[in-house]
Amino acid sequence: MTDRATAVRVPAAGAGTGLSTVAQLQRTGRTALALLRRDYAQRRVIRFAVLLDLCFGMVNLLVFYFISRLLHHPTAQLGGAQNYFGYIAVGLAVTLAVQSAVTEAATQMREERITGTLAQLVSQPVNSAGLALGLVAYPIVFALARSVLYVLVAALGLGLAVGHAAWFGVIVIALLGCAAVVAVGIVLLAITLAIPRSDPVVPLAALALTFLSGAYFPVSVLPGYLQAISDPLPTRLVLEGLRSALFSGGGWEQPAGWLLLTVAVLLPIAVVLFGWATSIAIRLGRLTGV
Known about the structure:
Blueprint: H1 21-42, H2 47-71, H3 84-115, H4 117-123, H5 128-157, H6 167-194, H7 201-211, H8 224-230, H9 234-248, H10 253-284
């Protein structure tokens, strides 16, 4: 059966026999326009993906713009790092961990829905908190392991200076950071579950979290209004705490305290949102499919 949305009436190839040249050109134009409308209708689901790709390109452009501003402001704070390599090494480790964790969790959610496993899980006597934590647990643990590996490679093989590191502080910040990313990941899963075709929001949100948190350049080079947005972000606290613990050996206690408070507030909210999104998905029959 032909899809009503993509059906198109195209004149037969030989239907133009005997027509004048002008009539044949008109028919050719109508055929081309009909096919253009069909292809546009078929691709409407990827328009957001194209927009997302443009956003990623613009963010990459802005990253190097703000890095260039850093080069003209040698007094900008590098979080205790001796050079920009030390600064960016921690930033990349956290960035890759956050992006990997939330995108892998979203991918797993999608697979659970396609295979029908999510509907089976929801039908079992499990609460929304256990389900949400279970869905993000493996991606978060794997992302933490990757971050540790990146920092070890940078320290042992690339000369990252961590001789004054407070390793207890590093561990505390890393664990609290994982808890914060768990909360953020659950919120994003709730969004993808409640809102149709919202999967592209996940990588964009992960990019925004790291971009605005000082992963690639100090927050001080951002405009004032973006600095205000950056202040409450948990990823900023993670980066600030890790750099202080690794390079200064102190000063990580305050970011750790704020992170603990953030997790205590955000995690329960995330679980409630996930439960609410699950209820919506059940009511609308969106536990299966894409």
